[in-house]
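Worked example 2:
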Amino acid sequence: MQRKRIIPCLLILAVMGCHALFAATIGPIKISVAKFPIAEWVSSQGYLGMGHFVAYSTVCRYGAVAVAHDTIMTAISGRNAIATFDGGVTWKSLTGGKLYTQIHGEVLPAGITDWPFSRIKDNYTMNTQNAVYQASHINNDLFVGGFFQCNDGAAAPVWERRVRYDGQFWVNDPYSLADSTANKCMPCEVIELPSGQLWFIWKNDYGSSGLHVKYSNDSGATWGKVNGVRVLESYNNHVGCTPYLAVPYLNGVAIMHSKPVSSVTTAGWNYSLNDVNNTPQPWSAFGLILNGYYVNSAIVRGSNYDTLYAALVMANNAGPVKVGVLTNGSWSVEEVGKSDISASNTGASGGDAYFDPFPTLLNGRAAVTSCGEDIYCLWADKSADSFRIYAKKRVGVNSWSDAITLVSQTERIYQLSVPLKCPAGYLPFFWDFYVDNTGGGLRFLNFDLTDVAVEKQPITSRPGIRICAIPNPFTSIVEMVLDNKSAASITRMAVYDIHGRVVRDLTSCGLLTGDRWSFTWDGKDKAGKVLASGAYLVRATADAQVAEKRFILAR
């Protein structure tokens, strides 16, 4: 049976009308700049899930964690993070308080003066540049990797920290020094294996330019080298800023990155497996994934961590978006979509102009994630007058569903941040945007996937009533549109609070146009009293048919 493309009515009601029921979709929401002044700047450097300053050195990092559909956190700038505990309606600190939580960049104790800390200036303030945020593949923690000072051509200490989820909130663990002789100010990625082993990967510049790696078997107290060697791949300064991503693989680690092979940028991978003593063995040779592409994001699945998925985008060019799939030690590549977004450069280089003066290597802003047992690929595209974010579900080997349009907007989409793992039935994600000379902001969508599968059927084959609430959440006025394909008359339309009490009867307030009813509600009860923010339910009854829709009042 041919699959039908699904477009959420929350975004394009004016064009399409109400064509689907998304029972718990929240957003898109612009996270308040008034509450989080730093959120305004996510647009300028692509802070989401990555770091401060070198957006050009990293790609779609996973700085977001989704514990459940209502408990989500994300890094939003070079040093801060926020969380929601109600699905995205309100945003707080990682412990439920106001504002945000600083997760790195604080002042170190003044008594620390030994090497390498003796070289740190500015009252021992940690450098806020170049930190990479990486959600754990194993649990709901977040790792932060960075360096203490940027000193081109000289040694710089690099560090990591775990932001630990305690079952209710996230708290900062102490820092761990991974290496005291790294070169230049390059981003650092931290991942965790099921055994608890930590891996620290960074892009080193000057001298031994390339990827450098260390590991720890004692939660970061001490760090070792694979086979006594810190350098994984030496680029000889031929590759300045290419994406790299590490994931658990079998009982060891796999690192996907790009390097020049016969003068062609090549996406590939290396891996190291542990022996019975949990000691990493020498790295494999660089293996090919796809010529001419970057690895933009990666996840691991399988009970033995043996299946990898990697979103692939063309190196510095617009073009096809693909997903590499590793099974049984062998890569295959599947085409998912295409993007007209090329590498973002300012000025004469011809890319999409953004505030960031460096190439971001974010072609297509592609990301892979899992929602329960399902694999999804998200990517951004543009046309003459709009930018969009799409998603497809993998339904089989080299087989993907039709695209779901998640976002459509006129502002440029700069960076995309998606959790490594999403709760079954939901796809929460963040993106930041930029408008020339006027700044930008951060947006969030918690997309409900539960009705997508059935909506692959033509809507005319499913008689009945369905409800859309626009916008959702709303602040003052919400419109509720009923698709009434059976032409049944509306016998009751009412709004209920969370206790099941009727707060407003709208039965006599509807406007019928064709086979669609439209109702509006101003967030007040029948006495005209303004109701409090929170969740409400609208229930429509048409003869023997009943439809319900949950929506959020957020004043």
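The first strand starts at residue 26 and ends at 30. Residues 464-553 form a domain with the Immunoglobulin-like fold (CATH 2.60.40.10).
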